[in-house]
Amino acid sequence: WTLNLWLNSPNTNADYDPRTLAAKAFQNTVNFKNGLPKGDGQIIIEKEEFIAESQRIGYRNIICQAEGTINISKDKPEIKPFFKDQYYGFTGVYEVLAEK
Questions:
Q1: Measured between alpha carbons, how far is 32 from 43 in angstroms, rounded to an integer?
Q2: Residue 76 pLDDT more than 80?
């Protein structure tokens, strides 16, 4: 999703610049990976890395799937994801359900 923000700048307006958001996420990720403080905003973490870190700090029964696809309802209502599973061959947005 972050790559999509950078390349396509969806929903740009006077109060929101997706490229700035993406640039901050890229910089925060580099800082995080190098053990430096991250700034305000997001970091990019692949699913496998997120699951491993979650397990390390004590989470269990971890379900990690594309955004909008985890459904634990017995009634199974229709799910309509907002984000795509992948953008440009990379993981899009994922969601997590876990127990602590």
A1: 8
A2: no
Query: How many CA within 13 A on the CB side of residue 67?
Result: 12
Give the closest residue to 19 by CA, choosing from 68, 32, 11: 11
Please state the separation of Cα 61 from the chain's center in Å: 19
Q: Which amino acid is residue 55, in one-letter code?
A: Q
pLDDT 10s digits, 24-48: 999 999 999 999 998 899 999 989 9
Question: Residue 84 carries which side chain, given as an amino acid letter?
Answer: K
Give the C-alpha separation, 61 to 90, whole Å: 25
Q: Is the pTM of this model over 0.70?
A: yes
CA distances (Å), origin 90, targets 14, 26, 66, 85: 29, 14, 12, 9
**Which DSSP string do the residues of 26-88 spell out, in sequence order?**
HHHHHHHHTTPPP-SS-----HHHHHHHHHHTT-EEEEEEETT-----TT------SS-SEET
